[in-house]
Amino acid sequence: MSDVGVSEVRCPACEGDVEIDSSTRQFEIVECPDCRSELEVIGLSPMTLALAPEVDEDWGE
Amino acid sequence: MAADRLRVAVFGASGYVGGELLRLLLGHPQVEIAAATSTRYAGRPVGTVHPNLRGLTGLRFRSPEEMGGFDVVFLAAELQTAIKVGADLAKRNECLIDLSPAYRLRDPAVFERYYGTAHTAPELLGSFVSGHPEDNRAALRTARLVSVPGCMVIATLIALRPFAADDLVDGDVIVDCRIGSSGSGAAAERLNLHAERSGALRVFAPHGHRHEAEVCQASGLAVRMTATGVEAVRGAQVVCHVPLRRPLSEVEIRRLYRDAYADEPFVRVIAQRRGLYRLPEPKILIGSNFCDVGFSVTPDGRRVVAVAALDNLMKGSAGTGVQCLNIRMGWPERLGLAFAGLHPI
C-alpha cells in the first residue's frame, strides 16, 4: 500500500468535504462527492479548489 | 419459526400495499406473519395474488373476522373498510399501524371537506400518532396507534421540512405531484385499463387533492397541490415551488438540508451539478425505502424548487410502515429495509 496522505478541502460550490491525496498536482480536476461538481486544483499549499470550467449540455433546447 | 418473533397480521393483504407489506415482513428477521386477510381471496395462497411471493411462504389469506390478539396489525384496507374496522382492531390488538387515509386527519370538518363525506368514527381522529419518522420519531417509540401519511405527503414533508422548521416560507407553496399507476390501487376500474392508462399524463387532481390537507396539517404551511398520473407503475415525485421570506444561497439551502437529514437513515440529499440523476427521481428508488430530496434555487435566491422522490409503495407506504414498526419495537430502523433500489430498471 502506498503511503499517500489525504487532506480534506471544502468544496467551493456546496461546502461538502472533498478528500485530496498528496500526490494530486496543480490544475488536476477532482470531483466533489456531494454535488458532483468538477473542481480544479488551483493551489497546493494550501490546497485550494475552484469550480472547473463547465461544458454546458443541451437538454433538447 | 423462532418463538420470540413478533406476531403480526396484515388486514387487507391482497392490495398493492398489502402485498408490499408481506414482501417486507417475510424478509424481516424479527417478525412472523400470523395472518393476512382478504375477503375476496380467503383460503387461497398469498402467491395467487402476489406472484412475486410464490415459494417464499405457505401463508394463505384468511377472512378478516375475529382479528384479535396480535402484537401488531397493519391495516392496509381501502378507506371505508379501514374506518369501519379501525376501532375494533385498535381495541383487540396491541398495536395498530394504519396505512389507509382513515385516521390521518385530526379535524372531522377537514376530513369531510376533502373526502366529501363525514367520518363515521370521528372520535378516533386525533388518537393516532402520525407515522412520519422524520418528524415524529419520539412519539412513535411508544405509540399504540399509528397512521402512516400518504405517499405524496411523505415526499412533500421531507422536501419542505427545512424551510417550515425555520419559518422561511413566505406565501403559498405550490406542489406538483407525479405518481405511478399503483398509487390508484389494485381495483380493476376503467381508469386502470391499459388502453386508458398507457401513455397518459393525467392531471387527475388539479387542486384539492386529499394529500393537500395532510401536508397543511403536518407542516403548518399553506400548500396548494396538483397531482398527475404518469407513465410508471411505481414511483412518486413532488416538485415544490417555495417562496422564501429572505434570499438564500445554494450553499445555505444545502446546509439546511444537511442539518435536517444528516442522521436520517432513509433520506438522501441529492442536488448534483453533473450526471444523469442530478435531482431526485423515483426510477432509481423502486423497491427501496429511500426518499431522495434535492433542490434548485433561483438566481435571486427568493424561490426554491424543492424536489423529492420515493417509491410510493415503499417509503410512501409499506416501507414507512415497517420503519415505524422498527422504531416502535426499539429495533434498528434499517432492519429489513436496508437494501438499495434497482438500477437499471
Automatic annotation (TrEMBL), chain A:
Matching InterPro entries: LysW (IPR005906)
Pfam families noted in UniProt: Zn_ribbon_LysW
Xref: PANTHER family: LYSINE BIOSYNTHESIS PROTEIN-RELATED, LYSINE BIOSYNTHESIS PROTEIN-RELATED-RELATED
Name this protein carries in UniProt: Alpha-aminoadipate carrier protein LysW
TrEMBL record, chain B:
GO biological process assignments: L-arginine biosynthetic process
Enzyme Commission number(s) of this protein: 1.2.1.38
GO CC term, one of those recorded: cytoplasm
Domain of life: Bacteria
Main function: Catalyzes the NADPH-dependent reduction of N-acetyl-5-glutamyl phosphate to yield N-acetyl-L-glutamate 5-semialdehyde.
HAMAP family per the UniProt record, alphabetical: ArgC_type1
Official protein name in the record: N-acetyl-gamma-glutamyl-phosphate reductase
Gene: argC
